[in-house]
Amino acid sequence: MPNIKYSIALLLFAVAATALPLTDSTPQLQRTDANAVWSPDSSQIAFDSWRDGDGEIYTAPADGNTPVRLTHQPGYDWAPVWSPDGSRIAFISQRDGNDEIYVMQADGSRPMRLTHRPGRDWQPAWSPNGAHIAFMGQDKHNNWDIFVVASDGSWATTVQLTHHSGRDGLPVWSPDGSRIAFVSQRDGDFEIYVMQADGSNPMRLTHRAGIDAYPSWSADGTEIIFTAMEQDGPEYISIPAGISKAANQAAPRAHYAELYDGQR
């Protein structure tokens, strides 16, 4: 069934966010609201919405009442992601004509553009310490790779972590920030991989015939759960993360310093 498989593959490289289910009884939240995510302390919800005629980022208290609009620029702002400490929100914006990664304070102030690449940049993922944001970026050949950037804008450019003709995307940091799990098509099918936070030592973890996607780390970093796309619906499978935690204590910033040659 190539058409179904191709459709699922396209969905894998759309922005994935933990959606808050909306019902008719959800106070003041509308059907045009999407990509809702909880703040780290579960006191607020960030989401994007077309309720004011343009795609913008909003926050609301946990009960959904009195949403506050955070962005006020022409162009679609979407897919908010809270920083680990809840003080900032990363998001994707088309305000400058291309899908780029931005970050702002949780109240919407001080928006800052982090990426300046010619292709689309999607799926921002905060490192556990909030210092870096990994994301998936598109090139002119419609290939996708994984990049990283400093969340405070202090790097002059982004660092490319994967360099492969197969599509790489959906990055997720390990709890200690030493590794990144991701999805890759480099071996012909969508599989779960893990690599060091500097992009070294990529390791394939799954060897299934179906499509594997949306990896998520266990709290101790020893296991990864992922979604296995099956003909009769998705299944959720847990696998060992592949590398012992004791062997991955090097600080990601030290790796980036070598990659970046001190130009930050």
What is the rounded distance between the termini? 47 Å
How do the helices and strands follow one another from N- to C-terminus?
Answer: HEEEEEEEEEEEEEEEEEEEH
Main sheet record: 4 strands, antiparallel
Low-confidence stretches: 1-12, 14-30, 243-264
Mean pLDDT across the residues is 82
Rg is 18 Å
Number of strands: 19
Specify the helix fraction band: under 10%
Q: Quick one: overall form?
A: globular
Number of helices: 2
Strand order of the largest sheet: 1-2-3-4
Care to give the gist of this entry?
This protein has 264 residues and is mostly beta strands. The chain has two helices and 19 strands.
Q: What features would you describe in this structure?
A:
With 264 residues, this protein is mostly beta strands. The strands form five sheets. Strands 1-2-3-4 form a four-stranded antiparallel sheet, with no helix packed on it. The longest helix is centred in the N-terminal third of the chain and has 11 residues, at 2-12. It is globular, with a radius of gyration of 18 Å. It has helices at 2-12, 252-260, and strands at residues 33-38, 44-49, 56-61, 68-69, 77-82, 88-93, 100-105, 112-113, 121-126, 132-138, 144-150, 159-160, 168-173, 179-184, 191-196, 203-204, 211-217, 223-230, 233-240. Helices cover 8% and strands 40% of the residues.
